[in-house]
Structures are given as structure tokens and as C-alpha cells.
Amino acid sequence: MREKAQAVVIGGGVIGCSILYHLTKLGWTDVVLLERDELTSGSTWHAAANIHGLHDSTNISRIQHYTMKLYKELEAETGQSCGVFQPGSLYLAQTEEREHQLRLQAAKAKLYGMNFYEISVERAQKLHPMVDYTGIRCVMFEPDGGNVDPSGVTSAYAAGARQNGAEINRFTPVTATEQQPDGSWIVRTPKGDIHTQWVVNAAGLWGREVAALAGVTLPLQPTEHQYFVTETIKEIADNAERLPSVSDRDGEYYLRQEGQGLLVGAYEKNMKFWAEDGTPLDFAHELFADDLERIEDNMMNAINRVPAVGEAGIKRVINGPMIWSPDANVLFGPVPELENYFCCNGIIPGFSQSGGMGLMAAQWMIEGETQYDMFAWDMARFGDWAGKEFTRAKVADQYAHRFAIHFPNEERSAGRPCRVRPIYQAQQEMGAVFGLNVGWEHPLWFADQPGTKDTNGFTRQNWFEPVGRECKMLRDAAGIIDISNFAKYICKGAGASDWLNALFANNMPKAIGRSCLTPLIGKRGGIAGDFTVTRVAEDEFWVIGSGLAERYHTRFFKQVPLPKGTTFTSHTEAICGFNVAGPKSRDILQRLTNASLATADFPFMRSKMIELAGVELLALRVSFTGDLGWELHCKTEDQTRLYAALLDAAKEFGAGPVGSRALMSLRVEKGYGSWSREYSPEYWPQEVALDRLCKMDKAFLNKPAVAATMATPAREHMVLLHLNAADVTASNADATGGEPIFKDGVGIGRVTSGTYGYSVGMSLALGFVKGAKAGDNVDVMVLGKPHRATILAEPPFDPKGERLRA
Length: 806
Ligand SMILES: Cc1cc2nc3c(=O)[nH]c(=O)nc-3n(C[C@H](O)[C@H](O)[C@H](O)COP(=O)(O)OP(=O)(O)OC[C@H]3O[C@@H](n4cnc5c(N)ncnc54)[C@H](O)[C@@H]3O)c2cc1C
Prior knowledge:
Elements: E1 4-10, H1 14-25, E2 31-34, E3 50-51, H2 58-78, E4 89-93, H3 96-112, E5 117-119, H4 121-127, E6 138-142, E7 146-147, H5 150-163, E8 167-169, E9 176-179, E10 185-189, E11 192-201, H6 207-213, E12 221-230, H7 234-238, E13 245-248, E14 253-258, E15 261-266, H8 296-305, H9 308-311, E16 314-324, E17 331-334, E18 341-345, H10 350-367, H11 388-400, H12 424-429, E19 432-437, E20 440-446, H13 464-476, E21 479-482, E22 487-492, H14 496-503, E23 515-521, E24 527-537, E25 540-545, H15 550-557, E26 567-570, E27 575-581, H16 585-590, E28 607-612, E29 615-620, E30 629-635, H17 639-651, E31 656-658, H18 660-669, H19 703-710, E32 717-723, H20 725-731, E33 740-743, E34 746-757, E35 762-769, E36 777-782, E37 785-791, H21 802-805
Parallel strand pairs: 1-2, 1-11, 2-8, 4-13, 11-18, 21-31
Antiparallel strand pairs: 3-7, 4-6, 5-6, 9-10, 10-11, 12-15, 12-16, 13-14, 14-15, 17-18, 19-20, 21-27, 22-25, 22-26, 23-24, 24-25, 27-30, 28-29, 29-30, 32-35, 32-37, 33-34, 33-36, 34-35, 36-37
Helix pairs in contact: 1-5, 1-10, 2-5, 2-10, 13-18
Bound molecules: flavin-adenine dinucleotide.
């Protein structure tokens, strides 16, 4: 066994082997995989191994398409069969909502050149005559869908990696991973130790146990999962052509041909956890006892749709373990608090995603960043707050709703409340409908009746009118928005200014009381974050950024060494905030403070420590609403007192609480981009109009990369679109994000944020397009159907920024 390696991959399932293969593909050949048993010994060997390309998320679709294509290439490269069958997949819609979802996916497929399109029921009948199509509203066909042989695929990755120089050691359990002072690792096994730069946790069912060796807790929970295979069915035996698989997600089962029978798998409502206190170390190539009663309802749905399932006997039942994260997505990326420890855990569709995840993992380790924005799958989206109870509740919910449609703006209630701030109860009593944000409850909108819940769908829902009233109140008078979600950091010390200048792309404010907006630049020269930095004292700065991205951003903060004696600390929990905005915000606030808020004394982009309603706070004259307004940041223990005073003072002016859905609408009316939608490492500064904030006459993190991207013409541009009112009224739906944009039938871009702009009376969308300019007419595929739209030359609300600066 090698004693040194560039990377040690722990786990020889499909994911570990794919990562090993891709590391070698990208040039690291001195890599080792350690497997405690035979390869495939976790979930891999017994998987149904269906493969699909299309997904609600565009980047996951890209990853899945890459994977589907790779299997054939891998076979050619290694000579090892992956057992690929690609008879295609039929997607059935039983409900209007499913039809919307599938039509949107078909529109995306057209934009990205992926093979997924609608076919007639007659054509579907020819492709799969055993399906009863009664009640099916539409059918989509994915010609490349199918399944693979799980062991074949794993062996092919392993063979490819070995061919490229990797070493694989089976029956070699990792017993310890020890970080060295220089950031490298010692990986210990009974057969010897390996000194390595990177450790990769691909230990699947044992992801928690392997993480714990490095002192890391991962929010993961295994469950049981079952499928069964029928005896031979005559029609299948007589048919020379393999049948396409059937995705009848409204029926909550999956179905495909296996041998000369059918395979049916189910995500049942009364799911069963396994190994809650830890995955047994001696478990390998084992299954659980059959429990078909648990999946009876799903089986009945399958039988109703494909009667042959009920007529054939059951030949084999597989009841095996799989491991889930709280949102059923992979926990991906380096652990931010450690050096060079990479996680790729909790993948549910391992066979649809193995190739893409392996490629992304290798890119991240070798090139420093992935080509696609992986923020939604970054393990940094969870933190210590995602404890065992939260994880259990979420996993139970995710499992039971695996095939349910996940609507835009959907908020699921499982596991909540998890984290609350002092005013939570007061907000509840005022009718707040809450969303989950980094574990915190935060108000999305305020209903007339406390206890009201969101309805869900692709069309306008029960919150459409109330959010409109909040927007109107803010634009006519003022609104109080809870912005405690923002991440808040304080940088203090003689080296604070230098350090922040070395980190961020913009020049840091020189004068006390000044603020600046600044991008953070990623390894490939894209936007890794957007922040507001305020100088509150000669040696003290407040940095405000996205709360969602706080753990993600720590990886960047670590890359610039802090000068001795200078500190940079998170105050996100200790500080709460409100944005009081709207034309009457000054009048409301002036009632509560002796500090002058007149523009002459407190202009736009300035800040002051003031006392307001008897509370010491930092007031910043900025507002994401694009209106006159202040952000007020106070100690968490003062939040209740401040909120009560603000609400009380607001009453007289016809103002009140406003939630984050309204904020979304207000910022889009101004054309403001937002982290993880318009701002992402995939976009270059000049594509999102942030290039003017990159100061090329100073050094900052990843400056050479951004210099290279800025020297290249923009690939596309962020634009604001106005959707035709008649089309929007007819569909009763606004864009929500992800909708493709076509011009004269050619795909030119996609929506990143969509909303109704209540104060301007326009359905709006922010998005990226290429080859189109202001005034051009395009089609936005809301619900997968063309909605005429015009690219606006300027934001419809206050284009000159007069309200902001009033
Ligand atoms: C019944 C069932 C059906 C499924 N059907 C599908 C499907 O149709 N399509 C699909 O895409 N996915 C399917 N899956 C999911 C799929 O099986 C998983 O996504 C995939 O196998 C995960 O692979 P992995 O490599 O992450 O983990 P695992 O397969 O669990 O592999 C982890 C490996 O790590 C090794 N290991 C653990 N600890 C150590 C240690 N300390 N030292 C060394 N090695 C260690 C283990 O021995 C194991 O071999 C199904 C799963 C189940 C249970």
C-alpha cells in the first residue's frame, strides 16, 4: 500500500469510485481508495440503479446528463460493462400541477439541448403497451432514461481509475483520520498509514462514522427502502424490445423492466429509519426482512396503472438501507472548518449523479472551484443547528414525499421550529407565515389570521394578495422587515482595513461612517458573494452578507491570513436587524431618536451608532427595497423592545410589518440581484453589472482570475423583463426562477428571479440572456408555455434612485 498520496478516498461505493476516477482524469494519479470490505458494500450493490437526466434544478440536470453519457464512454475506455439499458423513460402527469412541472422541464430541456419531450398517448401506448393511460394528462419521453448494473458501473470506475494510476485497497478499513499542523492528513488503517493532502469521505452508509473520525458531525440518517421484482411476464418475454421505464410520480412508485419481469420500488408514507444511533461497522452486503405491507398503497397504485404487476408473482424483494440528508440532497464539498477534507455524502440518486458528482468533486479539489454553482448542494448549507431531531424529522418528510412536486416558494413544516429569535411569538400573533432560513424561522408574509399556512402551486397562491398589500403599504408609507437573517461580522484591529481590502474586490471605506458594496471573487473569477462593509471606527468594520452563505463564505475568509492582533468574528446570532423602509420611514424613526435623520446629516450609504427607542444600534442608510430606508442592527436581547417601539411608531403613519416575499418583489422592481439567484460563482462581474465594484488597481482575493474574466466579453447579461399582462392573467402565474427564455424560437437565457411587481403593476423577472437587448421581445416559459415579455431598459421603480436618496 502506498504511504503517500495526493488524495485518499474513503469508501468504494459508486460515489467513491467515481471520485477516484475523476481525480485521475483531471490529472491526480497519485490517489488511493480505501474500502473496508468489497467494493459496493454499502447501498451500491443492491440499488435498482435507474438513471434519469431531467431534474427541477438545472445544474443537477447537467450533472445527470453528464453521468448518463459517461457510462457508455466508460465502457469503451475500460472494457468493463456498465450494464447500460436505455430504452427511455416515460413520465406521466396525472394532475395539472404535474403537467406544469413536466412542461417546464421540457422547455428547459429544449433550452439546454437535452432529450426530453412530449409524446402523444398513442405513441406512449406503442412504447409501453402494458400501461393503462386512463386519466393521464400528458406524457413526456426521455429517450436516454433507463438503468445500469450497479456493480458493473462501480467496477468500471475502479478499472478506469486503476488504468490511470490510482491504487485501490479492499478490506482496508479506515480507523482514524488525523489532521497535521501543515493541513495534510494521516489516514490510519490496520494495513498501515497514508500521508495525504486530501481526505475524501465517500463512506455512504457510514458517512457519519467516518466524519466523526475527523471530529465532524454530518446531518445524515439512514432509512430502509424497498423494491420488488416480479416473476416472468409473458408479454415481456415475448417482446424483443426492452420496455421504457415508467415515472408515474403521482402514483409514488417507480417501475421498469428487469429481466423478463417488472421491478417496482416505492417511497412509502410510513417510512422506517434504520441505524439511528450509528451504522453497524460489521454490516456489509446485507438486506432487511421484506415488509411489503408497508408499501401496499404504492403497490396498488402501480397495479392500477400496470395491471400485469398484480397478476405476476413476486420473485424477489430487496429491502436495503440508504442514507439521507435533511433536504434529500447530497452534502457536498470541503468541510469549511477543516483543511482539505472533502465530503460527498447522502446521495439518493447515486446512479443518476455519480459521474457529475465525481467530476465536480475532482474540479473542486484540483482546480479550487467547480464549473457549476454547487451552492444548493454544498454541505455548508447546514450547521450545528441541524441536529439529530431536526434531521430525523426532515428525512422522514423527504422520504415520504420523495415523488411529490416541490413547488417554487414551498416551505415544509417538518422539524420546525428549529431556531427562533426573541420576537418569534409576537410575529406569530401578528399572523406571520414563516419560512426556514439556515434553521431560523423568519416571516415570509403576514396573514389576517394567525396560524394561516401557505398554499402551494406553480400559479399564484393565497399569499399573492396579502404580499401585494405589504408592498403597497411600504411604497405608500413604510414597512418594517425583519432582516435578522443577514450574516453579520465584525472586523477589528489595526490590520482590519488592510485585511478587508485584501479580501474584497472593492476599496474599503476610508472615512468612519461610510459604507461600500463589494463583491467577493471566486476562484474562477465569478461572484462568490456580495457584502456591505461599513467603517464604524478607525479600526472597526461591520461586514453584512448573506446569512444563507455564512458557512460557505468562511472558506473564502480563511484564504487571506488575518494580521496579528486583528479579529474577524461572526455576530449573526448576537445581532438582530430590521429594515425600516418607505417614504415615511424617516418620520417613523425620527420619533424614536434624537439623532438627526435628515439627508444633510444622514445621507444615503452612511452609518451611525445611534440610540433609537432607548436601544443602542448601528443604523445604516441602505435598503434592499430600493426605497428610502435604514437598516437597524441591535443586540439580540434588545430585539423585542425595538420591534415593539417600531411597530408602535409605525401605526400612526399607516405602516406595519412586511415579510421577505414582499422584499423579493420590491428588490426586483429595482432590478437588484440577490445571492444564489443572480449572484453566483458562475457569473462574471460584468455579467451582473458589478464590474465597477472590482478595483483592479489593488490586490484582492482571486484578482488574477477576475482580471481574466473581465478581459473577456460577457457571455450573457442580467436583464429585467416585463411579462405581458394578458399572458400572465391567463395562466395566473408569474415567473419564479428557472424558466427558459426564447427569442424567435431560439433559447437565449433563463429567469433567475420572478415575481409580481405590485407597486408598478407589472409581472417581472430577472434573468440572463445572450444576444438580446433592451426593447427586444422574448418568450418566457412560465409553466412551460410562452409568455411574451419585453426586456426593460431601466427598472420600473425609481430608476434614478431619487427615493433611495431622498
Ligand atoms: C433499495 C435501493 C434502491 C436504490 N435505487 C436507486 C436507483 O434506482 N437509482 C439510483 O441512482 N440510486 C438508487 N439507490 C441509491 C444508491 O444505491 C446510492 O445513491 C448509492 O449507492 C450511494 O453510493 P455511495 O458510494 O455514496 O455509498 P455506499 O454504497 O454506501 O458505499 C460506501 C462504501 O464505503 C465503505 N466504507 C464505509 N466506511 C468505511 C471505512 N471506515 N473505511 C473504508 N471504507 C468504508 C463501505 O464499505 C461502502 O462500500 C438505491 C438505494 C437502495 C437502498
